[in-house]
Design a protein that fits this description.
By secondary structure, this protein is mainly alpha-helical. The chain has two domains: 195 residues, no CATH class; 112 residues, no CATH class. It is built from 15 helices and ten strands. The strands form five sheets. It has a two-stranded parallel ribbon with strand order 1-8. The protein has a two-stranded antiparallel sheet with strand order 2-3. Strands 4-5 form a two-stranded antiparallel ribbon. The chain is elongated and about 80 Å long. The mean pLDDT is 91. The structure holds zinc ion (ZN).
C-alpha cells in the first residue's frame, strides 16, 4: 500500500555484502557445473543458460539494482519450457526447477530473508497490510532438521513470477513480503499496479475513508455495523479486486469503533492530564501517539504492524492522531 525507499534496501544490502558475495560465487560455480554436465543442451535453453551465466559474471543477481532488475528481465526473458532427465538426475525434472534449485531460493527463505526483512522493518503484508508475512511450518521439511520442530518463515511474493523468471527468484528487489492469501491471489499476475520499491516514497495511493454520515449514526446507535468505510485508491482499480481489500476490511469495523471511541475519550483535557505520566516513563510524542492509536502512526511505518494503514487513516479522520 506504500512504497519503501530503495536506498533503505541498498543500505541493508551493504550490511549483508559478505553473505551475498559468497553466495553468488557458489551459485555461479553451480550454474557453470550444470552447463558442463548438460553439454547436450541446445537452442533456447542453452541460449537462456548462457545469458544467465554471462549476466551473473558481471551482475550479482541477489543485490541487483532496481534498474538492472528491469533490464535483466527484458534481456534474458522467460525461461524456456523444457522437461527431461538432466544429467545427475534419476527422474524427469523441469529446466525451471533446476535453475531454482541452483539459486537455492528455498534455503534463503529460512536462513537469510527472515533477518533481512525484519531488519528492513517489514512484518506485515505489503499488499493488504492486514496480516503478518510469517508462516510457520514444520522444520522436518527442511534438510537435516529434527521432526516435530517448527520454524517461522517469511512468505514472499515474486513480483516477477519465479515460474517465468527463475533467475530473478533471489533478487531482493523482486521479493515482496506478503501474507499467504495475497500470495495466492497475486500468483503469476504481472499486472498488479503497485511497486514496493521506489526512488522516493510518495504519499500512498490508498486511503480508508470513514463515511461521516455513518459515523454520526454510529455515535447514536453505538453499533459498529452502522459504520461505512470506503477503500479509495487512485489509478489502481484492479488492486482492490485482486486482493479483496473491501472484504478483508469489512471484518475490521470493531477496530474503527475503538478508534472513534478513543477519539472521544482522549480529548484535549484528558490528554494534557496524562502526558506528564507518560513523560515520567520517558515516552516521547511519537510513542505516545502509537500508544493511543494502538499502532504505528507514520506513513513510512505501515509495514511494521498489520492494520497500520487502516488505523492511521481512521485515526487521522477522527482527530485521534
Ligand atoms: Zn495480504
Amino acid at each position: 500500500m506504500i512504497s519503501v525507499n530503495r536506498r533503505l534496501v541498498e543500505a541493508k544490502i551493504m550490511e549483508n555484502q559478505d553473505y551475498i558475495k559468497n553466495d553468488s560465487a557458489v551459485i555461479l560455480e553451480k550454474l557453470k557445473a550444470f552447463k558442463y554436465k548438460n553439454r547436450s543442451l541446445k537452442h533456447d535453453p542453452l541460449i537462456y543458460l548462457n545469458k544467465v551465466i554471462n549476466e551473473f559474471e558481471s551482475t550479482n543477481f541477489i543485490s541487483v539494482s532496481l534498474i538492472d532488475l528491469e533490464r535483466i528481465k527484458q534481456d534474458i526473458g522467460s525461461v524456456p519450457n523444457l522437461k527431461k532427465k538432466f544429467n545427475g538426475r534419476k527422474k524427469i525434472t523441469s529446466f525451471k526447477d533446476e535453475i531454482l534449485s541452483i539459486l537455492d531460493y528455498k534455503n534463503k527463505r529460512t536462513v537469510f530473508y527472515p533477518k533481512y526483512f525484519s531488519d528492513l522493518g517489514i512484518k506485515s503484508c505489503v499488499y493488504c497490510n492486514s496480516q503478518l508475512t510469517i508462516v510457520v511450518t514444520e522444520k522436518h521439511q527442511i534438510k537435516n532438521s529434527n521432526p516435530n520442530e517448527y520454524i517461522a518463515k517469511f512468505q514472499l511474493d515474486h513480483y516477477y513470477p519465479k515460474d517465468k523468471y527463475p533467475h530473478l527468484s533471489i533478487s531482493l528487489f523482486n521479493l515482496y513480503p506478503v501474507c499467504s492469501s495475497c500470495n495466492l491471489a497475486k500468483s503469476n499476475n504481472e499486472n498488479v499496479d503497485f511497486k514496493l520499491y521506489a526512488d522516493r516514497v510518495e504519499e500512498s495511493k490508498f486511503f480508508f475513508e470513514l463515511d461521516n454520515k455513518s459515523k454520526a449514526l454510529f455515535l447514536l446507535s453505538r453499533n459498529s455495523s452502522d459504520l461505512r468505510i470506503n477503500f479509495k485508491n487512485k489509478f489502481v482499480e484492479d488492486y482492490v479486486d485482486v486482493f479483496k481489500i473491501d472484504e478483508i476490511y469489512k471484518t475490521q469495523y470493531d477496530i474503527a469503533e475503538e478508534i472513534i471511541l478513543k477519539s472521544l475519550i482522549y480529548n484535549g483535557s484528558y490528554r494534557k492530564s496524562i502526558v506528564k505520566e507518560f513523560l515520567k516513563h520517558r515516552v516521547n510524542d511519537s510513542l505516545f501517539k502509537r500508544f493511543i492509536l494502538g499502532n504505528y502512526t507514520m506513513d513510512s511505518e505501515i509495514h511494521k504492524r498489520p492494520n497500520a494503514k487502516f488505523m492511521q487513516d481512521i485515526g487521522k479522520q477522527v482527530g485521534l492522531i
